[in-house]
Amino acid sequence: MKRKVLLIYTGGTIGMEKDYETGSLRAFNFSHVFDRMPEMNLIECEITVHPFRKPLDSSDMGPKEWKKIATYIGKNYENFDGFLILHGTDTMSYTASALSFMLKNLRKPVILTGSQLPIGDLRTDAKENLLTSLYYASLYENDEAVIQEVTIYFEYKLLRGNRTLKYSAEYFDAYQSPNYPILGQSGVHLNIEKDFLLRPSRDADFNVDTHLSQDVLFWRIFPGMHLEHFAEIPSMKVLILQVFGSGTIFNTTKTEQILQLLRERGTEIVVVSQCVSGGVSFGKYTNSNVFTKVGAISGHDMTAECAITKAMHLLENPSYEGSFAENFNKSLCGEVSLEHH
C-alpha cells in the first residue's frame, strides 16, 4: 500500500535556483519539483505538493505562517499518512517548536527539512534531505506511523523539532539537539531510536490549537547590563530572560527590585540558559535565588526557540486549565527534561 505524503513548500534555499544574469538566488516554481528531481518518483509513496503562493524567506516566517501550516495539516490530516514541510533554515527550529505545541496528540509524522545549498547546485544537500525526509514521512510499521511527532531532518539526522537549534550558517550539518538524543540516523540503513520517540496518550484525539500570543519579549542578559531599562518597557505579559550558566544573574538589590516590579505589573518571567547544552537549575548557586524569590519560572533545558513559542502558545490560551506557570512547568510534547532538574 502506497503511503500518501503531503509536501508543503514554504520557501527557503531548497527551492531556489541561480539567476545566471545577476548571480542572485530566486525561487523556482516548486510545483515542477518532480522535473528537477525525478528520483522522487522512485519513492514508494504518493506525493502531493502544496506550495505557498509566495515562497517566503524563513526570516519572514512567523506566527501567521505557523498557524497557516498547522491549519492546513489539520484540514488534510485524515487524507494523508505523513507531512513534509520544506522551510528555510534560519527559523526552522521556531516553526518546528510552534507546530509541536499546536498539533496536539499527533499520530502521524510531521517532518521539516531544508538545505544549505539550492536544489540545482552540483554539491547540494537538498536532494538527500528531501528524499530521506520523504522516507521518514511515509514510514509505517503494522499500520502505525513510526514517527508521531514534529521533527527536523537534516544531514543524516532526525531530531525532535522542539529540541533543535540551528548552530551553523555554513556547514551542511546545521542543526543540533543538545539536550535530547537523536531520533534517527540515515546511513546505509535508516535507523530509528524507538526508545526516544514521543507517543501521544491513547485516549486523546488529534486536534489543532493555533492559539499564539505575541505579547512575549526575549532578552539576553550580559555583564554590566542596566536592568532599569526593563522598567521603561511598556507592560509585557511574558519576559523570557536568557541568563548565565545554570540560571545565574548579577546579585544586586537593584536586580531584585526591578524583577519584583515586573512581577507586580503582572509580567511572567521565564528563565533559560545561554549555554547550548544543559539547563537552568534554581538554587544551585546563590545568584539564582533571586528568581525563586520573585516567582520566576525555570525553563529547565529548553532551547530559547522552544521557550519563546511555548510561551506564545500558553499565554492567555483558553484551552488550558491552570495558570501559565503551571502549564509552562509541564512537558507538553517532549520539549523539556523535567526529571533531570
List keywords for this structure.
alpha/beta, Rossmann fold, 9 helices
Brief write-up:
Pfam families: Asparaginase, Asparaginase_C. The chain is of the alpha/beta class and about 350 residues long.
Provide a descriptive summary of the structure in words.
The protein is of the alpha/beta class and 341 residues long. The protein has 2 domains: 3-208, 3-Layer(aba) Sandwich (Rossmann fold), CATH 3.40.50; 216-340, Rossmann fold, CATH 3.40.50. The chain has 9 helices and 20 strands. The chain has an 8-stranded mixed β-sheet with strand order 4-1-5-7-10-11-14-15, sandwiched between helices. A 4-stranded parallel β-sheet has the order 17-18-19-20, sandwiched between helices. Strands 2-3 form a two-stranded antiparallel sheet. The longest helix has 14 residues, at 63-76. The relative contact order is 0.12.
**Mean pLDDT level:** 94
Spatial strand order of the main sheet: 4-1-5-7-10-11-14-15
What distance lies between the first and last C-alpha atoms, to the nearest angstrom?
Answer: 45 Å
How many helical elements?
Answer: 9
Low-confidence stretches: none
- How many distinct domains? 2
Main beta-sheet annotation: 8 strands, mixed
β-sheet strand percentage: 15-25%
Fraction in helix: 10-25%
Compute the number of strand runs.
Answer: 20
In terms of structural class, how would the helical and strand content be classed? Answer: alpha/beta
Succession of helices and strands: EEEHEHEHEEHEEEEEEEEEEHEHEHEHH
Shape annotation = globular
Could you say what the CATH architecture of the largest domain is?
Answer: 3-Layer(aba) Sandwich
Organism: Kaistella pullorum
Protein name: Asparaginase
Active site: 13, 89
Family: Belongs to the asparaginase 1 family.
